[in-house]
């Protein structure tokens, strides 16, 4: 089989490029990456780290390079790639001494993905899947369970508290949407769910007010009276 001149040129370029990359030692690549990281040039640091991961997968800097790639992805606002790398590291390096960072990065990347675009109009936000929020919360919980003395625990708890409020807000938006649509039974159930699942949330008062409005709309007089009394007590205490 004869190769065209264009094909031969492309092959020559690929081979020479590969050889040129491979000619850098692992130490040289790692040093280049560190110099760029120290100067905050994360995009420039990414290439030598990727070369270490590709050409020296069992080298002495390979696992450290993988962790730094996760860090760089987060710094470059690339949470999808950071999440993939973190999950891969957790799967392949379960005994690594810095495994807790991969757990933390997985939680942080999933948090960034979950909250992205949450500043939508109420009806649009209410229709979004809440599963990414729950997954992010679960990822941070896994970090705390696996590493109870982790240096990242305080940050993880802060993100989890934030996710708790966002989940409560999401459910409130859904309940309000149901109410506007006249689906009072569904709205009531979702508002009550907020009070049960997120007690003390900043959205508790709005949820309780919605419970009362739905009960009144459904002519649930006894229940509405009890909710009104509870709301009055809440307002007095807060």
Q: Any key phrases for this structure?
A:
238 residues; mainly alpha; 12 helices; elongated
Overview of this protein structure:
With 238 residues, the chain is mainly alpha-helical. Helices cover 77% and strands 0% of the residues. The chain contains twelve helices and no strands. The protein has helices at 5-22, 26-38, 42-55, 62-75, 79-92, 99-115, 122-126, 131-146, 153-180, 184-197, 204-217, 221-237. It is elongated, with a radius of gyration of 26 Å. The model is unreliable at 6-21 (pLDDT under 50).
How do the strands and helices of this protein lay out in sequence?
Blueprint lengths: L4 H18 L3 H13 L3 H14 L6 H14 L3 H14 L6 H17 L6 H5 L4 H16 L6 H28 L3 H14 L6 H14 L3 H17 L1
In a nutshell, what does this entry contain?
The protein has 238 residues and is mainly alpha-helical. The chain contains twelve helices and no strands.
| Strand segment tally | 0
Q: Cα distance, first to last residue? A: 83 Å
Question: Given the structure, what is the number of helices?
Answer: 12
Order of helices and strands: HHHHHHHHHHHH
Largest sheet entry: none
- Shape, per Cα inertia axes: elongated
Q: Mind telling me the C-alpha Rg?
A: 26 Å
Q: Give the structural class.
A: mainly alpha
Helix content: over 70%
Spans of 5+ residues with little confidence (pLDDT < 50)? 6-21
Q: What share of residues are in beta strands?
A: under 5%
Mean pLDDT: 87
